[in-house]
Each structure stands twice: as C-alpha cells, then as structure tokens.
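Course assignment 3, question 2. Fill in each field.
Student: A.L.
Task: Predict the tertiary structure for the chain below.
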Amino acid sequence: MYDLPPMARFGGLLATDLRDVTSDPAALESTGFWAVVADFEGRLTCARFGDVRPAPVPSPVPGGWRGPAVDAWTSSLDRAAYTAGVRRIRRHIAAGEVYQANLCRVLSAPLPPAPGAGPDAPAGTADVDALTALLARGNPAPYAGTVRLPEHGVEVATASPELYLRRSGAVVESGPIKGTGRVAADLQEKDHAENVMIVDLVRNDLGRVCATGSVTVPALCAIEPHPGLVHLVSTVRGALPAGAGWPELLAATFPPGSVTGAPKASALEIIAALETAPRGPYCGGVGWVDADRGTAELAVGIRTFWLDRAPQEGDPHGAPVLRFGTGAGITWGSDPEREWEETELKAARLLAVASGAQQATGGTVR
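Answer field:
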C-alpha cells in the first residue's frame, strides 16, 4: 500500500533500524533509544531504534508533501458548538465542579492524490516527515519532530512548543503553557490566573511521584515568543525517588495538566461529555527516551498533525485523512467568542504551512 520505512526525528537526531515496538512503559527503563507517542486516550506506542545519528531536518523537496487546501478542513465542533461548550464549562465552574477545563476540537481534511494520479487514486505515499520539513521552515518549534511507524498506525509530525516531561536521571521537569496572544499586550489577567492554576495541578501531579519536598517552580508565567504568537510558560521541577521510573511517572502525570484542567478528574469528565472526536496524539505526549543515558524529552502533543489511514466512511478509495487539534483553556473569566478565536489563532499558521503556503499566516476552518 505504501513504502515508508519506520523512523523518528527529534532534536537534530534521526533514528532508523526499528528493533522493537511495545506499549509497556517499563521498556523505557531498559536500554536503547525510544520514540514515544502517547495518545490522549491512553494508547502508548514505544519504538526502539538501533541506529541513531545526528541529521538535520532536510529542506522541503518540491512535491515532497501535498497537503489539503486551507479551506478543506472540517472541525469536530463548529463555532456554535464550541462556544456553547465554553458556556457549559462556565456553568460547571459556577457550580464548583471545576476551576478550569481545556476544550478542544479536531480538524480533519483528506489528502489529495499524487500528481498525475486520477481523482480517485489514494494518497498512499503521504509522508509525515516531509510535512516536518515544511513545519521546520514555516513554524519552527523547540520540540518539533517526526514519528513514522506506518505498520503500527502511528504517523505523527509535531511542531510542539510545550514541554511535557524532560528527564535527566532522577530529575524531571515540566513546562506547562497557559495563556496565548498575538503579542504580549494581548495577555490578560485571566491568562495569568489560568497559568497559576495549571502550575498548581502540575506540582500536584509531580508531587505524587517525586520525592517529598523536591518539587519546585523555578519560573512562573514567563513570556515566550513563538511564530505568530506568544505564550505564558512556567517551569515545574522535581526529583524521582529510588525505585520510581517511567511507569510511575506517566501514571502520575498523564494526560498533561495543561491540556486537561483542574481538578484533573473533573475536567476529564467534562471533556468527555463535550468533545465529539478522540484527540489521539493531540494533547498526548510525543518525544524520545534514551534509556542508556537516562535522559528524555517528551512534548505535549499540541501543534501536532497525524495521518489516519483507516478506511473512512463514504470513501471507498481509502485516501488518508490528515488531522490536527486546537483548543483553549476555559475559566470563569472566559468569553466564548474570544476562546473560539484563540483556537483559530493557534491553528491558522499551522494549517497554512501544511497546505504548502509557506508564508501564509492566516486561514480559517469550517
């Protein structure tokens, strides 16, 4: 159907020669270099590669990626449904059930057939690593990368700006983002309050697995620029006790607090009731673990595209669908229309890049 060898690309490293694939997080404590994709719903894919070498992201090749048109995307929640969801969350907040909840929508578009193919031909050679090359030029990000495991149903290209977990030996660190604007002046008191709430949640999550008294907040609400927008970013750090590793760390912290809400259990119930599509890799975790060196860097799976090659209803030819998620954190101070516009802002540049319009900075979805 397609001939795309397994590979992963992160932080100037290219991993090939797939040796093992497992869903057991204990494997990350063994040996070797692992690429990791954790879906928001809990599916974990860990892939160990035998050949890891320095390799820059290649320059985009003309015709290497054929993305959907900017106006071809559909949303799991339209504007009316999303703003209604914001109002529903505000009612939950008024009732004291939750302080904050992240409301997301998944955007989908079929990929066009290869050049010269008939209109019914599948786009079976679509390569997420070619999309990564476009993202590196059009929307560079600190935790950008590719995980390509076609035979295991995992094909992800991420331009994530957010650190989920960094590990160096026993020391672990998270960098939650809350608060987004076009420029720093757009950030409001609501954004700072939301960031502080999520920092408390992340502190609590890390406190469940880290040594007592080791959890600190080295940075709170720092302004961090990214292409086309700015974020408020905090840093939370802790130390794992002897005997604690990846199984315990993921159990204590997943899904990431910045894309769920506070309290996390209540927010997850509200999310399940309001969202109409699974998030998949979006809002999960994407990154790498070097078990030999005891180091790792997992990003929150935001600004993330993934390919869905499963047969789609009404599409007998099986053209793969490209998916992308966007969302916003909802608090009592949220304005429904403003929150919708924040989801548009977060998506616009990335959708333009995926369409192949390198310099575009706008765009809308239906």
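Instructor remarks: The domain at 7-355 is CATH 3.60.120.10 (Anthranilate synthase). The first strand starts at residue 7 and ends at 10.
Grade: pending
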